[in-house]
């Protein structure tokens, strides 16, 4: 019998954001080391959840084709509530989606995950060659400029700074997220996914 992340009463096994984070850390460790189990991805798992979903974490990540949260964290169908948008930026739709995950689905952890060699950030660093990024560049360009004086790799610094910036925005926006963050009921954490190693680094835990 396939082990699931939810019990027979239809409740997530991750009762707190710390338990959810532990599941993500363990799954990513398995992914990065090549010891993946590929859990709960069959038709039976999908059919078992057709009436209700029980995600234990929310992930806001880039729409990049190389970034697939379910693979990166070695989880299955119904485990993650994912929002993917180029550059890992915010919009009203993204905020509303994550509020839904918190209020209606009981998610207690949201991870804002940037990633190595992000094409959206590279495009925003050369906007004259990529006019199609105007819809997100107004959010990303200020981060890029703020990071110019920092030591180290400019692209990496910008991507991590953006994840932290978006985390701060989410933690203070609207009554749903801000109140639950202040009360400690939920946690929003920035992260960085290395495409070359598979490892996800979590910050400011």
How is this structure best described in words?
The chain has eight helices and five strands, in the order H-H-E-H-E-H-E-H-H-H-H-E-E. It has helices spanning 17-33, 43-48, 69-72, 92-105, 119-125, 134-146, 154-172, 175-183; strands spanning 57-61, 80-84, 109-115, 187-193, 200-202. Mean pLDDT is 89; it is low at 1-9. Strand 1, helix 3 and strand 2 (80-84) form a beta-alpha-beta unit. It has a domain at 17-117 and 162-202: Beta-carbonic Anhydrase, Chain A.
How many extended strands? 5
Percentage of helical residues? 40-55%
Task: Write down the CATH class of the domain at 17-117 and 162-202.
Answer: Alpha Beta
Rg of Cα set: 17 Å
What's the short story on this structure?
This protein has 205 residues and is of the alpha/beta class.
Sequence-ordered SSE layout with sheet pairings:
Layout lengths: L16 H17 L9 H6 L8 E5 L7 H4 L7 E5 L7 H14 L3 E7 L3 H7 L8 H13 L7 H19 L2 H9 L3 E7 L6 E3 L3
Helix pairs in contact: 5-6, 6-7
Task: Name a few traits of the molecule.
single chain; 205 residues; alpha/beta; 5-stranded mixed sheet; 5 strands
